[in-house]
Automatic annotation (TrEMBL):
It comes from the Bacteria. This is GNAT family N-acetyltransferase. The keyword Electron transport does not apply. Coiled coil: none annotated. Residues 7-163 form the N-acetyltransferase domain. Keywords: Transferase.
Length: 165
């Protein structure tokens, strides 16, 4: 578990399926990251648990320390097709504008660079997702290339371990 001033980050589990589906039901949220049916969410969360077991990292639930409320997800996801580890974040629309995404992503990034033997992390962002671009820039990420993820164009940002501190 990773703790920040306002947040708790813990590995996502299959038991989080209802909160995960609810997060992705909101059209303001899923327009850039997609929606999940209950079955798709169970498959995704099973994959997340497997990545934690096999690679020692994965996606985390983001909870408010003050209430325990699930407000989203953040984490380090290995993409086999790119052979890269991506830092990603998705929060409930009601949690936007409070700095939670940057706080959670920074904590996860710091943990990743301290714990994992990765020379850099990426952030894959749909070009119209200007809020996520701003989070990436606040974290120190810089544009690396354009690519395609799930049939959608994404701007791939990166941050090297040497320049992260």
């Amino acid at each position: 578990m990773i703790e920040t001033e306002r947040l708790l980050l813990r590995p996502l589990r299959v038991e989080d399926v209802e909160a995960f589906v609810a997060l992705h039901e909101d059209e303001r949220v899923n327009r850039f990251v997609g929606a999940y049916s209950h079955r798709q969410a169970l498959e995704r969360l099973t994959s997340v648990e497997q990545q934690w077991a096999e690679r020692g990292h994965g996606l985390c639930a983001v909870e408010l320390r003050s209430t325990g409320e699930f407000i989203g997800r953040v984490g380090l996801n290995y993409w086999e097709n790119f052979d890269e580890v991506e830092l990603g974040w998705t929060l409930k629309a009601g949690a936007w504008g409070h700095g939670y995404a940057t706080e959670a992503a920074r904590a996860c990034l710091d943990w990743g660079f301290t714990t994992l033997d990765e020379p850099y992390f990426t952030a894959m962002i749909r070009p119209a997702n200007t809020a996520s671009v701003r989070v990436a820039e606040r974290l120190g990420f810089a544009p690396l290339r354009m690519d395609t993820l799930f049939g959608n164009p994404v701007a791939v940002y990166s941050l090297d371990k040497q320049t992260s501190g």
